[in-house]
Amino acid sequence: VPMGLAKAPAGDLSVTPNPGRFPDGVAVGSPSAPLALTVTNNGFSSIQNVVVGVPGGADEFTQDNTCGSTLAGKSSCTISVTFKPTSSGERTGTIAVSSTASNGLQLIPVSGLGVIPSAALAVGNFPATQVNESSTATATLTNSSTVALKLTPVDPGAQFSIDDGGTCSSS
User: Fold this and answer.
1) Which of the four pLDDT bands, split at 50, 70 and 90, describes residue 171?
2) Pairing outcome for strands 20-21 and 106-115
3) DSSP state, residue 71
4) Span 85-100, pLDDT tens digits
5) Considering Cα of 53, then 54, then 59, then 60, what sign does the dihedral take?
6) How far apart (Å, rounded) are the C-alpha atoms in residues 133 and 33?
7) 3-state SS string for 95-151
8) Is the pTM of this model over 0.70?
9) Regarding beta strands 26-27 and 106-115, do their DSSP bridges make them parallel or antiparallel, or are they unpaired?
């Protein structure tokens, strides 16, 4: 290398947040909203051979990314991690980012809490009712878990109707 000219050093990568944590419990068997991890090339030189993978916890953590195989100097890309727990409790995995970066392989721990939804239904009795008259009984569904319950509409049949009074939703 001629005097006064130096080869630009390879950039180094950082990934944030590190570690990655899903903030809320996720129902077992249901996918979470994506968790965004930002990969940043802190150097001025491009980083080559960028590969993102899930070597640990691949059955519960998956990823999609915008990184491509080259990450230009002083630029970023995003890894979107989704968590779909297979059982309840604390679950862990790893996102790996390999490249030609000067700081080598980046292993980012990811974790989340798998929760089994739990609910209780209490149904009141109908009072004695004359033929062709109507009466009301109250049913209360209580969610005792930390995750939202998915409610599915039901058809109670021709002799009954359901009025949720605007307090229940199916989302």
Assistant:
1) very low
2) parallel
3) B
4) 999 999 999 999 999 9
5) negative
6) 47
7) EEEECCCCCCCEEEEEEEEEECCCEEEEECCCCCCCCCCCCCCCEEEEECCCCCCCC
8) yes
9) parallel
